[in-house]
Specification:
Layout: H1 6-16, E1 26-29, H2 32-45, E2 49-53, E3 56-57, H3 60-66, E4 70-74, H4 82-92, E5 98-105, E6 118-123, H5 143-151, H6 158-161
Parallel strand pairs: 1-2, 1-4, 4-5, 5-6
Antiparallel strand pairs: 2-3
Helix pairs in contact: 1-2, 2-5
């Protein structure tokens, strides 16, 4: 499968994760590139959105909300699992109920920490050499674009949205 860009990958991943909408998830991006993908997931699920950076989550409110809740850890892809495993350590320290890793693309054989309850991936190709090969456009993500994606996030925490279970 070939994704046009991170926006398209995020929209498709959001479709895949719709079954989590009623669980009031918190969405956390594992990297700057993951923020673009994660924003689509958070918007669709109306969930709070944060980013793992420097050994913590840069949004204190998202960090607080992650405790005892489902956390969807999102990135633009997994190659070796190093970034995902480092982010899993940060998220696990918040004592969430469960952590699910979700990405557009990951190799068939990947070792993630046992901290991840599940791995969702749209594509699991073999052979797999790089995340870049599965995107037409995979540009560098500037700090300004990360800030804009986080600031422009229109998701809403279900706890404050007045939503009820269906």
């Amino acid at each position: 499968m070939l994704f046009r860009d991170r926006d398209e990958a995020g929209e498709l991943l959001a479709d895949t994760l719709l079954n989590f909408a009623g669980q009031r998830p918190v969405v956390v991006a594992a990297s700057a590139g993951g923020v673009i993908v994660a924003r689509h997931v958070a918007d669709r699920l109306r969930a709070p959105l944060g980013l793992v950076r420097g050994g913590g989550i840069i949004d204190a409110e998202v960090e607080r909300q992650a405790s005892a809740r489902l956390v969807l850890l999102i990135d633009d892809g997994i190659r070796t699992g190093a970034t995902a495993n480092a982010a899993l350590e940060v998220v696990a320290a918040l004592q969430p109920q469960r952590i699910v890793v979700a990405v557009p693309v990951a190799p068939q054989r990947i070792r993630l920490s046992r901290l991840a309850a599940d791995l969702y991936a749209i594509a699991r190709p073999a052979p797999f050499s790089s995340v870049r090969q599965w995107y037409r456009e995979l540009d560098e993500i500037s700090e300004e674009r990360v800030r804009a994606a986080l600031a422009g996030h229109e998701g809403q925490d279900w706890a404050y949205a007045g939503a009820t279970s269906l």
